Amino acid sequence: MVVTRAVLVGCGGISRAWFKAAQEMEGLSFVGLVDINRAAAEEKAAEFGLKDAVLDTDLGRVLQSTQPDVVFNCTIPDAHMPVTLEALEHGCHVLGEKPLADSMENAYKMIEAARKANRIFAVIQNRRYNANIRRLRAFLESGVIGRITTVNSDFYLGAHFGGFRDRMEHVLLLDMAIHSFDQARLISGTDPVSVYAKEWNPAGSWYDHDASAVALFQMTDGVVYTYRGSWCAEGLNTTWECDWRIVGDKGTVTWDGAEGFKCQVVAKSGGFRSEWADVPVAESDPGDKVGGHAGVMRDFLRAVRTGGTPETVCTDNVKSLAMVFGAIRSAQTGREEKTG
Ligand SMILES: NC(=O)c1ccc[n+]([C@@H]2O[C@H](COP(=O)([O-])OP(=O)(O)OC[C@H]3O[C@@H](n4cnc5c(N)ncnc54)[C@H](O)[C@@H]3O)[C@@H](O)[C@H]2O)c1
């Protein structure tokens, strides 16, 4: 098998998920680890037994000396653009951590650079690679609840991170809601058109900035998606995947983000309320769209090796990013904003 040579940049907390996922992948070799804090690269090299990888604080030097095929970008959002541009200029394919970019302007620069370089640039959107969300999507595609009209999601967690997130602006929308918004696109099979949103920091918050938000999206095909979320909610927490309700013109399905599915469809109409029948949400074969980080990495490596387009390619993923920045803009202007 041809070995794909990888350099990973940004050896912080999330890089562990990448190194762990890589352990179960054939034909992937880490030839370099880069971090502006050399100790972080040394720590991960030791922890994952990467004895042959070059360790450095300078990406350019490592690209020159190792000539990798791919660069994995696990840096903080501010560094996503410079690292990705440098890797693309060097002829590497790039898989980066979410969010794609720290602004829409920078996102478009990165997309254009990937196009010019004729290289793949994709984003880790690991919450898509989950057997239960695939089961929900397959069930909706089967048409049991009819045409989707409305999607609601709730995200309520009391998350005491104690790190950079406690000081970060738009912490919920930027750092977390990108996952939920991307999930909404997958679940509904629609894309955003416009958004009206409000952000606030609830009384008693342990965050410096807004840790709660509500957003109302107009999606394509007439679908309306509402999001309610907080990272500052004690008690009765939802899952990290959100609590979902999808309404169609023949019925409703709910998903608790874990194993809990419920569905009712119209069995007899004509009265004030229809009569409804419970319908099991059939299990489905998710194929290899599972495994979180491992699933996204597999999709990306397959495209690099054999052609094709990974599901989270930048030109698609930017639509999820547009939901985040549209919601932030709307919260700032107090008006409905376009999301594309
Ligand atoms: N997909 C997920 O579920 C998930 C979960 C957590 C974090 N993330 C994302 O992963 C990214 C990193 O988050 P983290 O929690 O690992 O942060 P972190 O602060 O723990 O690690 C970031 C690392 O990048 C290094 N770094 C920063 N700028 C750099 C540069 N220009 N060149 C080289 N190294 C640089 C830092 O020194 C640090 O070691 C963020 O974009 C975050 O949103 C994703």
The CATH class of the largest domain turns out to be Alpha Beta
Helix content: 25-40%
CATH topology of the largest domain: Dihydrodipicolinate Reductase, domain 2
Separate helix tally: 9
The average pLDDT value, as a whole number, equals 97
Low-pLDDT windows of residues: none
Characterization of this structure:
- There is one protein chain.
- 34% of the residues lie in helices and 25% in strands.
- It contains 9 helices and 15 strands.
- Strand 11 (243-248) and strand 12 (251-255) form a beta hairpin.
- The longest helix is centred in the C-terminal third of the chain and has 20 residues, at 314-333.
- The chain has 2 domains: 4-123, 3-Layer(aba) Sandwich (Rossmann fold); 130-287 and 322-338, Dihydrodipicolinate Reductase, domain 2.
- The strands form 2 sheets. A 9-stranded mixed beta sheet has the order 14-13-12-11-7-10-9-8-15, with helices on one face.
- It is α/β, with parallel strands linked by helices and 340 residues long.
- The radius of gyration is 21 Å and the shape is globular.
- Helix 7 crosses helix 9 (314-333).
- Nicotinamide-adenine-dinucleotide (NAD) is lined by residues 9-14, 34-37, 40, 74-77, 79, 83, 97-98, 124, 126, 175.
